[in-house]
Amino acid sequence: MYKVKVFVTLRESVLDPQGTVVKSSLHSLNYQEVTDVRIGKYMELTIEKSDQPIDEAVKEMCERLLANVVIEDYRYEIEEAVAQ
Amino acid sequence: MYKVKVFVTLRESVLDPQGTVVKSSLHSLNYQEVTDVRIGKYMELTIEKSDQPIDEAVKEMCERLLANVVIEDYRYEIEEAVAQ
């Protein structure tokens, strides 16, 4: 069994309106020192072993469903876990 | 200057309908080996040095705005970065 952590972030060149709102909310809470906020998604997947190599499977899932590769970047961490 | 990564996830006991939908989408794409999906938020903050210790400031921001501590857990990583 694997525990996979997937991080999906907007590409640098893409505007992040949600991040802008969070930044101005932090400013109005008096955290003027915050100069930039970027918001992304974080996913934890639990995956059983299968015939397909895990690395290849996760890459495919990201490309096909989890990330919109036109405007988003993704990275992932795979951890082997002992079934409980 | 600090780069701070914040991870906000739903507590274990809280249902994650968005994760359930992603899981069934993955199943319909033929990734039957995925047994669980949990979806959270990932935020990257850029913060200038200030009088308040960074660790304390980030904790406060999480508690006051970034996470809903009733149903969400958060953790963060602080990295000191050289201003460019």
What can you see in these coordinates?
The structure is a homodimer of 84-residue chains. With 84 residues, chain A is an alpha+beta fold. Chain A has one domain (2-80): Phosphoribosylformylglycinamidine synthase subunit PurS (Mth169, Chain: A, 2-Layer Sandwich), CATH 3.30.1280.10. Chain A has 2 helices and 3 strands, in the order βαβαβ. Chain A has helices spanning 17-28, 54-66; strands at residues 2-10, 34-47, 72-80. Chain A has a 3-stranded antiparallel beta sheet. The first copy, chain A, starts with a strand and ends with a strand.
Briefly note the CATH topology name of chain A.
Mth169, Chain: A
Could you tell me how far the N terminus lies from the C terminus of chain A, measured between alpha carbons in angstroms? 10 Å
**Helical stretch tally of chain A:** 2
CATH H-level homologous superfamily name of chain A: Phosphoribosylformylglycinamidine synthase subunit PurS
- Specify the biggest β-sheet of chain A: 3 strands, antiparallel
Q: Which pair of protein chains has the largest interface, and what are the residue counts?
A: A-B, 34 and 34 residues
Number of strands of chain A: 3
CATH architecture label of chain A:
2-Layer Sandwich
Q: What number of domains of chain A?
A: 1
User: Would you tell me the overall average pLDDT of chain A?
Assistant: 94
Task: Work out the helicity level of chain A.
Answer: 25-40%
The oligomeric state is homodimer
Principal-axis shape of chain A: elongated
* Class computed from helices, strands and strand pairing of chain A: alpha+beta
Walk across the major sheet of chain A and give the strand order.
Answer: 2-1-3
Query: Which parts of chain A are unreliable, with pLDDT below 50 for 5 consecutive residues or more?
Result: none
Sequence of secondary-structure elements of chain A: EHEHE
Radius of gyration of chain A over alpha carbons?
17 Å
* CATH C-level class of chain A: Alpha Beta
Strand content of chain A: 35-45%
